[in-house]
């Protein structure tokens, strides 16, 4: 029963994320953004023109739950299960929550208003990864759940072919982590002070020798 409830809740969240992507208008406007970035933008063949490739999309958060102010990587994977036809000129759009600062976008993606867009080309039977490196805002509370949703469009004039989502679960700072950060800061201060004393001593010795 709980699995059914959890699955339904996840489905509603994913649908809400997809609706947010479409509602933002950035999925539709992304070809212009990609063109401005130097990408060669083409519309993928429609279902009437050629058989639609079997394409899967997954989204995962790499590594352990990050603390506030720490980094994480979101990895979207597009898998082309069609062994005879490549995916060419498709579009992947991923929404990144406001509390996640985008530090780096891989694979030539374009960031605009919290939406990352990629041109997607996947060979027959192959797969491609698209990553976003983010940093959790300092003021985010521990145990906060920040969900990112990605949608793949084989045809930009149609509904998304597939959508996927995953959640960055922010870790709660522990007493040990706070002590470690304090100790690290104190250690750095002591090392810097020792280096300064050594440098001053060296200058005094040089003057005496001169």
Rg, Å, rounded = 24 Å
The overall average pLDDT, rounded, is 75
> What does the oligomeric state look like here?
single chain
Q: Which class do the helix and strand fractions yield?
A: alpha+beta
Query: What is the helix content?
Result: 25-40%
Question: How would you sum up the global shape?
Answer: elongated
Give the number of DSSP strands.
9
- How many domain modules? 2
Strand order of the largest sheet: 5-6-3-8-9
Count of alpha/pi helices: 3
* Biggest sheet layout: 5 strands, antiparallel
Give the amount of beta strand, in percent: 25-35%
Task: Give helix and strand order, one letter per element, not per position.
Answer: HHEEEEEEEEEH
End-to-end distance, in Å? 85 Å
| Low-pLDDT windows of residues | 1-6, 28-53, 176-183
* Name of the CATH class of the largest domain: Mainly Beta
Q: Might you state the CATH topology name of the largest domain?
A: Immunoglobulin-like
Question: How does this structure look, described?
Answer:
The chain is α+β, with helices and mostly antiparallel strands and 210 residues long. The chain has two domains: 2-169, Immunoglobulin-like, CATH 2.60.40; 174-210. It has three helices and nine strands. The protein has helices at 2-23, 26-36, 175-209; strands spanning 55-62, 71-80, 87-95, 100-105, 110-112, 115-122, 127-136, 145-153, 162-169. The strands form two sheets. It has a five-stranded antiparallel beta sheet, with helices on one face. A four-stranded antiparallel beta sheet has the order 1-2-7-4, with no helix packed on it. Strand 5 and strand 6 (115-122) form a beta hairpin. The chain is elongated, with a radius of gyration of 24 Å. Mean pLDDT is 75; it is low at 1-6, 28-53 and 176-183.
């Amino acid at each position: 029963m709980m699995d059914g409830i959890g699955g339904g809740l996840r489905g509603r969240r994913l649908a809400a994320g997809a609706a947010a992507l479409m509602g933002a208008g950035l999925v539709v406007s992304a070809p212009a953004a990609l063109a401005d970035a130097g990408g060669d933008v083409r519309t993928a063949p429609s279902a009437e023109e050629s058989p639609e490739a079997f394409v899967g999309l997954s989204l995962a958060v790499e590594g352990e739950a990050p603390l506030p102010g720490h980094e994480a990587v979101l990895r979207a994977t597009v898998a082309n299960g069609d062994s005879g036809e490549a995916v060419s000129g498709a579009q992947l759009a991923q929404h990144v929550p406001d509390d996640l600062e985008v530090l780096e976008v891989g694979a030539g993606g374009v960031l605009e208003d919290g939406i990352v867009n990629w041109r997607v080309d996947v060979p027959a039977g192959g797969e491609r990864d698209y990553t976003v490196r983010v940093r959790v805002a300092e003021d985010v509370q521990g145990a906060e759940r920040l969900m990112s949703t990605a949608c793949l469009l084989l045809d930009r004039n149609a509904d998304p072919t597939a959508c996927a989502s995953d959640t960055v679960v922010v870790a709660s700072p522990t007493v040990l982590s706070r002590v470690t950060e304090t100790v690290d800061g104190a250690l750095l201060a002591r090392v810097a002070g020792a280096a300064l004393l050594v440098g001053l001593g060296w200058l005094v010795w040089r003057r005496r020798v001169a």
